[in-house]
From TrEMBL:
The keyword Transcription regulation applies. This is Mycofactocin system transcriptional regulator. NCBIfam families: mycofact_TetR. Residues 31-50 bind DNA. Keywords: DNA-binding, Transcription, Transcription regulation.
Length: 191
């Protein structure tokens, strides 16, 4: 029997309510009080789930990053480094079709809301670091060395390009667009 305070809500309930209100009022005009009221909890309860309104669109990003790290670390060593990173990015970007809020809606908010840009830079740095740590481990170098950092930055650029294309072409597959971004880079490097 678990002791302690019973769970008042869930991450999913908060995210769904927040995205509903974001769609109605816009991100900037949505208050934490409005989200809390919609979920039926107090503002302080929200802070047990998310440290700020800016964190809500990112969902449970810390656990997602941990899963990303585990996915990369589980890649067999015989898979070439660039393929292992690419496969890891594809796995990271696999979401259920019925996810609520839909991943496309989540990324539209993150990428197109000026108030989220600074916060996004922090999250993108954390994401790149997972790749840099993996590359460093595979190449027996330090994560701050040039190769791990370059791979992290390039991988983020490829992923963001795919996301931007996805926002313009929502009927296309995100995985296809990530592959397309990688193919474009590969073609460019071989010109």
């Amino acid at each position: 029997m678990a002791l302690g305070r019973p769970e008042a809500t869930s991450h999913a309930d908060i995210e769904q309510a927040a995205f509903r209100i974001f769609a109605q009022r816009g991100f900037e005009a949505t208050t934490l009080d409005a989200i809390a009221e919609s979920v039926g909890v107090g503002r302080r309860t929200l802070f047990r789930y998310y440290p700020s309104k800016n964190d809500i669109p990112w969902g449970q990003f810390d656990s997602t990053l941990e899963h990303f790290r585990e996915t990369l670390d589980s890649m067999p060593p015989e898979i070439p480094l660039h393929q292992a990173v690419h496969r890891g990015i594809l796995a990271f970007n696999s979401f259920p079709e019925d996810a609520q809020p839909p991943h496309l809606e989540r990324m539209r908010l993150i990428l197109q809301t000026p108030a989220l840009k600074a916060h996004s830079a922090i999250r993108f740095t954390q994401w790149r670091q997972v790749i840099a740590d993996f590359v460093a481990s595979r190449t027996a170098t330090a994560p701050h060395n040039a190769l791990p950092q370059v791979v992290g930055h390039v991988s983020l650029a490829l992923a963001l390009t795919a996301y931007e294309q996805w926002l313009m072409r929502p009927d296309d597959s995100l995985h296809h667009l990530i592959d397309e971004s990688m193919d474009l880079l590969t073609d460019y490097l071989h010109q």
